[in-house]
Task: inverse folding
C-alpha cells in the first residue's frame, strides 16, 4: 500500500521531468527525423467532465508535473476549456452513466478500444466502478499493459440487497476477477471496507490492491474557520440522490421543528437528471414551502458555504468512497454527522470528529443534530479534531504523495 512520507502542512510533493525516473517508452521523431523518447502518456477515463475538475485535478496535475502527457477521456459538457487550461488534452467520450441495452454497451466498449489503440497510453487510470469495468475490458482488448482503477465507492451493485443488485453482483464478480487481476492491473480503494470486501471475494491480487483514502482536499482553499454567529445551521452538500439520504434530512428537519429545536437545515446542490435515483426540484420546493429547510442552490464556493454553517450532514445509505463533501467540511473545522456506512466511517470518528447514525434513521439523525446544536463547546472540539485529521491523513499533499509512489512503482515495474 502506498504510504505518505510527508505531511499536509509541508510543501506539495512533485518532481520535474528531469527528476522523474528514466523509463523505456515508445519513441517519436523530432523535426530532423531523429528518434527521441516520447513522454509517458497517461489517460484518465472519467464519466463526466465536472467530476474530473472537482475531484481529479490534483492527481492529473501530479502526472503533468512528473513530465507526463495527460489525456482526459470524459463526457465533455461545460468543462473542456478548464481541462485544456491545465495543459491536459480532453477527448470526448459519451457518458458511461447513461443506461442502455447490450448493443449500446457493445458500442461503448468498441469506442473505448479504438480510443486506447489510437492514443496508445503508457498508463490508463479508470475512475469509479463503471469506467473500471469498461476501461479494463478496453485495455485488455487494445493491449494496454498498465492500468489503475480507483473505486470511488461500490454503489448499488454491492451496497443493496435488492434482487436486481444480487443478480448484478453475480454477473460482476467473475468479470471483475478477470479484468482486475490481469498482470499490470492495480486497484485503488478509498476506504478499508471496500478493500476488505474485494479481498474476501478474491477479486484483486493482494499485491495490487492499494488503499489511498480519498481524492484529497486543499487545506489552503478550505481553511479552518471560526463558527458564524446566529442560529446553528446544519448543511447537506451534494447531489440530491435518494440514497444520499436527502429525504431523511427533510424528515429530520420535520422532527426538529416539532421539538422546537432552534436549528436551520440547508441543502446545497441540485438534482441529477441523469440518475434514476435523483429527487426532483419539485421535491425540494415542496420541503421549502413547508418551511422545513432552505435550498441554497448549486454552489461552487463551498468554503463560503461553510463560513455560514456549523454542522455537516451526509446520511447516505449507499457505499461511499470517501466523501469529498465531508473532507471539505472537516478541513474547514466543522463537525460531521453521517451514516455508519463504508466511506463515511473512514473520516467520521464517533464522538471525536462527529457522530455516525444508522442508515435511513431520520430520528437518530435529528437527535444527533439536536445534540450538536445545543453544545457549542462540543462542536468546536470536534471541528478542531476534524481539521487535524485532514491535515494528518487526507489533504492533497498526503494523497498525491501516495499516488506518486504508486504511479512510479507501476511505471518502473
Result:
Amino acid at each position: 500500500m502506498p504510504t505518505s512520507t510527508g505531511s499536509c502542512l509541508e510543501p506539495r510533493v512533485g518532481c520535474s521531468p528531469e527528476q522523474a525516473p528514466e523509463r523505456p517508452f515508445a519513441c517519436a521523431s523530432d523535426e530532423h527525423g531523429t528518434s527521441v523518447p516520447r513522454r509517458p502518456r497517461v489517460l484518465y477515463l472519467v464519466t463526466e467532465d465536472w467530476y474530473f475538475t472537482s475531484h481529479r485535478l490534483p492527481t492529473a496535475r501530479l502526472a503533468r508535473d512528473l513530465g507526463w502527457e495527460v489525456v482526459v477521456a470524459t463526457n465533455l459538457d461545460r468543462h473542456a476549456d478548464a481541462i485544456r487550461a491545465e495543459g491536459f488534452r480532453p477527448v470526448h467520450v459519451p457518458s458511461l452513466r447513461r443506461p442502455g441495452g447490450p448493443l449500446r454497451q457493445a458500442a461503448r466498449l468498441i469506442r473505448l478500444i479504438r480510443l486506447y489503440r489510437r492514443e496508445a497510453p503508457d498508463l490508463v487510470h479508470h475512475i469509479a466502478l463503471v469506467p473500471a469495468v469498461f476501461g479494463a475490458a478496453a485495455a485488455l482488448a487494445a493491449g494496454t499493459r498498465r492500468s489503475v482503477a480507483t473505486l470511488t465507492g461500490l454503489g448499488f451493485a454491492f451496497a443493496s440487497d435488492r434482487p436486481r443488485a444480487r443478480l448484478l453482483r453475480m454477473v460482476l464478480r467473475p468479470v471483475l476477477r478477470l479484468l482486475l487481476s490481469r498482470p499490470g492491473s492495480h486497484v485503488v480503494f478509498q476506504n478499508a471496507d471496500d478493500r476488505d470486501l474485494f479481498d474476501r471475494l478474491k477479486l484483486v491480487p493482494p499485491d495490487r490492491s492499494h488503499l489511498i483514502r480519498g481524492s484529497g482536499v486543499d487545506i489552503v482553499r478550505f481553511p479552518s474557520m471560526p463558527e458564524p454567529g446566529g442560529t446553528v445551521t446544519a448543511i447537506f452538500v451534494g447531489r440530491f440522490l435518494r440514497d444520499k439520504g436527502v429525504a431523511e434530512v427533510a424528515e429530520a428537519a420535520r422532527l426538529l421543528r416539532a421539538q422546537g429545536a432552534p436549528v436551520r437545515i440547508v441543502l446545497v446542490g441540485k438534482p441529477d437528471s441523469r440518475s434514476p435515483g435523483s429527487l426532483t426540484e419539485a421535491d425540494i420546493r415542496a420541503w421549502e414551502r413547508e418551511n422545513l429547510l432552505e435550498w441554497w442552490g448549486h454552489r461552487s464556493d463551498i468554503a463560503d458555504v461553510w463560513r455560514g454553517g456549523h454542522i455537516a450532514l451526509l446520511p447516505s445509505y449507499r457505499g461511499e468512497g470517501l466523501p469529498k463533501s465531508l473532507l471539505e467540511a472537516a478541513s474547514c473545522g466543522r463537525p460531521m454527522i453521517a451514516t455508519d456506512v463504508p466511506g463515511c466511517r473512514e473520516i467520521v470518528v464517533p464522538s471525536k470528529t462527529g457522530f455516525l447514525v444508522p442508515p435511513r434513521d431520520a430520528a437518530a439523525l435529528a437527535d444527533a443534530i439536536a445534540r450538536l446544536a445545543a453544545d457549542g463547546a462540543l462542536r468546536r472540539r470536534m471541528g478542531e479534531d476534524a481539521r487535524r485529521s485532514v491535515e494528518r491523513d487526507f489533504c492533497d499533499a498526503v494523497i498525491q504523495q501516495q499516488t506518486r509512489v504508486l504511479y512510479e512503482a507501476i511505471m518502473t515495474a
